[in-house]
Design a protein that fits this description.
- The chain has 7 helices and 16 strands.
- The protein is an alpha+beta fold.
- It has 2 domains: 13-125, D-amino Acid Aminotransferase, Chain A, domain 1, CATH 3.30.470.10; 133-295, D-amino Acid Aminotransferase, Chain A, domain 2.
- Helix 2 crosses helix 3 and helix 6 (220-231) packs across helix 7 (276-295).
- It is globular, with a radius of gyration of 19 Å.
């Protein structure tokens, strides 16, 4: 059963600026710069059987995200990796979702934040299927978001920055209020981009298509699934995808650390089958993460 408690009221420990602290004591001041100006970056990563999948890649991206927001996280990639492992072990977790978060503190208020201290915290908790087990069997129902992913010259789109998710929250809330699981987002040009927190893949005649990630994250799960498809001899095409092309695709699925590989049954007026190739790639993904454990 999913833990229904608030995320500030749980047992366990969180790694906070170099040490483990009780979960309920991992707090920040109300005048923290990140709370007012979204000057924070984060990662979402999963552990399977006590091993964190692509951990170093996540830690590298976290460091790079901070740099794109103009700050240096004062821990090395190796130190962040070790801290993540420490959190997993200290909380006695095998299968878990993990959230490293770096942010500007409360030393300076206003748009400028050069004097603000950079903090880092890492939490982990059990988290099953992000969209629920029914979505895996039946496929997701997606609304079409009214908000669009911004142009790369308007925001640091290669950073996993908290501020870039504001329109994702708005889009998902509106979709859920209408009975959908999530929303498909277009970009500023009107091209298909991604869902609110996961990359998009489409299948037509056993060819895999995915939007070019020039204004949204090139997800690590996305990269993994593309590699898995190529290992099977499946052609993978990165391209601009316009909405009018969606009716030609037979299958559609989402990828992400939380979403893993989740099929989509519909997006706005377009319908898709929960097909064999989607489910095969989903199986390949789980075979990979658990095979890595057995070979480690």
């Amino acid at each position: 059963m999913t833990d229904q408690r608030s995320y500030d009221d749980r047992d366990g420990v969180i790694w906070y600026d170099g040490k483990l602290v009780p979960w309920r004591e991992a707090n920040v001041h109300v005048l923290t710069h990140a709370l007012h100006y979204a000057s924070s970056v984060f990662e979402g990563q999963k552990a399977y059987g006590g091993e964190i999948f692509r951990l170093t890649d996540h830690s590298k991206r976290l460091k790079r995200s901070g740099e794109l927001l103009g700050f240096e996280i004062p821990w090395s990639v190796d130190e962040i990796d070790e801290a993540c492992r420490e959190v997993l072990k200290a909380n006695n977790l095998e299968d878990a979702y993990m959230r490293p978060l770096a942010w500007r503190g409360s030393e300076q208020m206003g748009v400028s934040a050069q004097q603000s201290k950079i903090h880092l915290a890492i939490a982990a908790w059990p988290w099953g299927a992000y969209f629920g087990e029914d979505a895996i069997r039946q496929g997701l129902k997606l609304d079409i978001a009214k908000w669009r992913r911004p142009a790369p010259y308007t925001a640091p789109v290669e950073s996993k920055a908290s501020g870039l998710y504001m329109i994702c929250t708005l889009s998902r809330h509106e979709a859920q209020a209408k009975g959908f699981n999530d929303a498909l987002m277009f970009d500023w040009r009107g091209q298909v981009a991604e869902a609110t927190g996961a990359n998009a893949f489409f299948i037509r005649d056993n060819v895999l298509y995915t939007p070019t990630p020039d204004c949204f994250l090139n997800g690590l799960t996305r990269q993994t699934v593309m590699d898995l498809a190529r290992r099977r001899g499946i052609e993978v095409v990165e391209k601009a995808i316009w909405p009018e092309e969606l009716e030609s695709f037979q299958q559609f699925f989402l990828t992400g650390s939380a979403a893993e590989v989740t099929p989509v049954a519909s997006a706005g007026p377009w319908s898709f089958e929960v097909g064999d190739l989607t489910m095969q790639l989903r199986k390949d993904y789980f075979d990979l993460v658990y095979r890595r454990l057995s070979n480690s």
